[in-house]
Write a structure and sequence with these properties.
Layout lengths: L13 E7 L6 H9 L6 E8 L5 H12 L3 E6 L5 H11 L4 E4 L10 H11 L3 E11 L22 H6 L9 E3 H6 L13 H12 L1 E13 L9 H20 L14 H18 L3 H13 L5 H10 L3 H13 L1
Helix pairs in contact: 7-8, 8-9, 9-10, 9-11
């Protein structure tokens, strides 16, 4: 057990968990950003989720040079980042766990700022920062295209229920808390938004802290899993359903104010979002699945009906309507 009276000068070991799949294009930059941290009491654990490119060769070169700071483990492909992250957590030796996706990267003082923030309040189980969107080549998006959202701290389950405020590569989490909430959920319906599911579980029972000024670089490219709108919609619905069960079963800490938690409203919003995004992706099969599922749950709104009607029109007519909407 960690001594709660440890001085502020104490430097706990931080385990950085990095899942990777066919990450040869970007993983070297991600690893270098970990090794260049001003906070040096760390280890890096790379879990290769069945890559078929030369990811393993690239990582092995770093392992050979920086052993024992870096460890590498290969596993058969699971198709779910949660599985790779959980393996890394299990192998980790650190008191705190940070996560970095293999296509993202940190500024040099990233871990130092997270640890210093975590030391301020012993009750905090998670610290999170913000992000900067960059393109495939690392060029920052213009300010008007950067994400903007509130970053509350304390007991924030209600705020998290309304919106996913956290990104995996910005997180620093107590390892003991991760086991308290049974790690990442490895459900196939959480191929995306498994981080939202985890952060909802943690915020339901623990205080969290935020660092709005601390930003990591989130690389947007064609192979981003999070850009699959169908999988993302499914993941968000699953995560919120799981969180709703925590509320219904009385498993949310009393310190959280649940007055503004409207389960029905949030679920309806997510089904509308699922139908809308799959409609604009021309993924009508998935769109109709969400519609049928929503109807089964008693969810049928004007926005959903509109998209169902439009999807039945000839494709040329739909294309004209979409272009008119986008031009507004």
């Amino acid at each position: 057990m960690v001594d709660e009276n440890l001085p502020m000068s104490y430097q706990p070991l931080v385990s950085v968990v990095m899942p990777a799949y066919n990450a040869s294009e970007f993983i070297a930059e991600a690893i270098k950003s970990v090794l260049s941290q001003t906070y040096q009491h760390l280890e890096l654990i790379v879990i290769d989720d069945g890559s078929v490119d030369n990811t393993g060769e690239i990582v092995s070169e770093f392992v050979e040079k920086y052993k024992p700071t870096i460890r590498y483990q290969y596993q058969d492909n699971s198709g779910r980042p949660a599985c790779a992250r959980n393996k890394g957590i299990i192998l980790a030796r650190g008191e705190w766990i940070a996560f970095l996706d293999s296509d993202d990267y940190w500024i040099n003082g990233h871990l130092q700022q997270l640890i210093e923030k975590a030391k301020i309040d012993k009750e905090v189980a998670l610290v999170y920062g913000s992000k900067i969107w960059v393109d495939q080549n690392g060029n920052e998006y213009p300010p008007e295209y950067q994400p903007r959202y509130e970053m509350p701290e304390g007991w924030i389950f209600a705020e998290m229920f309304k919106n996913n405020l956290m990104c995996t590569s910005s997180l620093l989490v107590k390892r003991s808390k991760l086991f308290d909430v049974d790690l990442f959920n490895e459900s196939k319906s959480l191929k995306v938004a498994e981080d939202y599911d985890l952060c909802l579980k943690i915020s339901a029972t623990s205080k969290v802290a935020s660092l709005p000024e601390l930003k990591y670089y989130y690389r947007r490219h064609n192979t981003n899993t999070t850009l699959d709108n169908s999988k993302r919609a499914r993941g968000l619905i699953t995560a919120v359903d799981n969180a709703a069960n925590l509320v219904i079963n009385g498993k949310v800490a009393k310190e959280n104010d649940l007055q503004d938690v409207d389960i029905r409203k949030r679920i309806v919003e997510l089904y509308e979002h699922a139908v809308l995004t799959t409609y604009y992706d021309n993924n009508y099969l998935e769109m109709r699945r969400f519609v049928v599922e929503g109807i089964w749950r008693g969810i049928i709104t004007r926005k959903i009906i509109e998209k169902v009607i439009l999807s039945l029109l000839p494709r040329k007519v739909v294309a004209i309507i979409k272009n008119m909407v986008r031009a507004k």
